[in-house]
Design a protein that fits this description.
- The protein has 319 residues and is of the alpha/beta class.
- It has a single domain, classed as TIM Barrel, CATH 3.20.20.
- 43% of the residues lie in helices and 13% in strands.
- The strands form 2 sheets. It has an 8-stranded parallel sheet with strand order 9-8-7-6-5-4-3-10, covered by helices on one side. It has a two-stranded antiparallel sheet with strand order 1-2.
- Strand 5, helix 3 and strand 6 form a beta-alpha-beta unit.
- Helix 8 runs antiparallel to helix 11.
- It starts with 5 loop residues before the first strand and ends with a helix.
- Keywords: Oxidoreductase.
- InterPro entries: AKR, AKR_Detox_Biosynth, NAD(P)_OxRdtase_dom_sf, NADP_OxRdtase_dom.
- One of its GO terms (cellular component) is cytosol.
């Protein structure tokens, strides 16, 4: 696979590279200066699809949400590279008790807030960050449809929807003549396969949706840096990673990744991502980096082609 290879994002007419960059790190684990250098490097390395959310990174001490969008906006203003990137953000997670959900009046307010922080007049992909069961799907989709007609948004997507609700939303769009979700953002990686493959995958493939999956490296586990309980100390999230993934099945997956990465002289990270990129229906897994060295490692995945036997080896190990 060449670095310049691209794919269509559903039926949106938007073209993206083989990986999506997750902007949750901006204003959380990387400061503004480092964020700017990462963003410049992303464009230079051909990874110009950037995904963020209005809520990033509210969870960090001293933050209130909007930090990631604000940093991206400052970079866009300074660099003038708006036309060189595809920009995705999200609405719906709680920013405050009154700023949450997918009611039309809130979507209207949230999109203006995001556009202001991002210092742009349009968002390429605007996503419902999670399902809002208290708001009729037709109301939410109607609000999104208006934003597309006004030119503020190019396409819409869904994140964290169940298969049933996603199907229902697509049906509402068709029946009511409204814009439809063109993408899905689910959790999916070599370890966490079952929920997506059993229910969501048949829907997205039948409907031709783009898939930009998150936790594509299982919170770093698939990079191979957590191999025994002592490795929990390697990062802030290490304990959770070790507790969830360090078991016979997890170790079996790491063994397969090691064998294939040795054969290609690449890293386990690159193999884990190449397996996803090769899966029918997956458009561009979401990855994050906090340094240029990590970014180079990720970029290598777009140039790695696994053999059918190697894909089968990973399928079997992660059954």
């Amino acid at each position: 696979m060449s670095q310049n290879q691209t794919r269509q994002l559903g039926d949106s007419g938007i073209t993206v590279p083989l990986l999506t960059f997750g902007g949750n790190v901006f204003g959380w684990t990387v400061d503004q200066t480092t964020s700017f250098s990462l963003l410049d490097a992303l464009v230079d390395r051909g990874l110009w699809f950037i995904d963020t959310a209005d809520v990033y990174s509210r969870w960090a001490p001293g933050n209130k949400g909007g930090e990631s969008e604000t940093i991206i906006g400052e970079w866009l203003k300074k660099s003038g590279k708006r036309d060189r990137i595809v920009l995705a953000t999200k609405v719906g997670m709680e920013l405050s008790p009154e700023k949450t959900g997918l009611k039309p009046q809130y979507i209207r307010q949230a999109v203006e807030d995001s556009l202001r922080r991002l210092q742009t007049d349009y968002i390429d992909l605007y996503q419902a960050h999670r399902d809002d069961q208290d708001t009729p799907l037709a109301d939410t989709l109607s609000a999104f449809d208006s934003l597309i007609r006004e030119g503020k948004v190019r396409a819409i997507g869904a994140s964290n929807y169940s298969a049933a609700r996603l199907e229902e939303a697509l049906q509402v769009s068709e029946t009511e003549g409204l814009a439809r979700y063109e993408t899905l953002q689910p959790e999916y990686n070599l370890y966490d396969r079952q929920p997506y493959e059993s229910e969501l995958e048949p829907v997205v493939r039948a409907q031709g949706l783009g898939v930009i999956n998150y936790y594509s490296l299982a919170s770093g586990f698939l990079s191979g840096k957590y191999r025994d309980a002592a490795d929990a100390s390697k990062s802030a999230r290490g304990q959770g990673v070790v507790d969830k993934y360090l078991n016979p099945r997890g170790l079996r997956i790491l063994d397969a990744l090691d064998a294939i990465s040795d054969a290609h002289q690449v890293t386990p990270t690159q193999v884990a991502l190449a397996w996803q990129i090769a899966r029918p229906g997956i458009t561009a897994p979401i990855v994050s980096a906090t340094s240029l060295k990590q970014l180079d490692d990720l970029t290598g995945a777009t140039q790695l082609t696994l053999t059918p036997a190697q894909i089968d080896q990973l399928d079997q190990a992660s059954r």
